[in-house]
Predict the structure.
Amino acid sequence: MSTFPGAPRLLKGTIVLLDAVSFFPTGIIVLQYNPETLKRTLQVRGAGSEGGDRLEALRLVAPPLETIQLEAEIDATDQLEFPARNPVTVASGIYPQLAALETLIYPKSSQIQKNNQLARNGILEILPIEADLSVFIWGLTRVMPVRLSELSITEEAFDTRLNPIRAKVSLGMQVLSTNDLRFDHKGSSLFTVYHKQKELLTNANLGVTAIKAISSLL
């Protein structure tokens, strides 16, 4: 699909996977089309959130619990117009993209087999191995470590081999803060940058600037 000459380059929402140990990128999922809406919910984590203690009413003990919901569309129509350039799409439709999203909430099959073998040998694994870290990128100032909490897929069209060629995907994600991860975890570092960027953007708020100007006169 051609673009208008001189049009600004469009950033697309992206999920990057980082290895749980080395934090080296192991995969990337780019949304084919940016969703028209993105819903964010922030739930306060405060010492006085339960009420009843006036001394704790204004104390914040941790960053809020932030959740993100969005609906994305995946469509193979453009790729199928040029089958020679897109052999994977011709063979499997959009199932590779859907599988990439689905495996975010699957443990690795090799780990399941390993755990089963350990159980047969009478060895009990105390903790499962950490999954790869998912990082949701929505623009230059919002790079967030997340955990996929909800995934709903509606397949709307299929090719002659029943491969999906068009689908709507609903994603629910929880932003992982320093309250959810070890402080020395790479995800905590990413969240800290995300947190500080919010504070920097606050200083650009004209309302805050006006308040500071008035305060200086008092």
User: Anything to note?
Assistant: Residues 14-104+131-217 form one domain. The beta strands are 14-18, 25-30, 38-43, 65-75, 133-137, 143-158, 164-175.
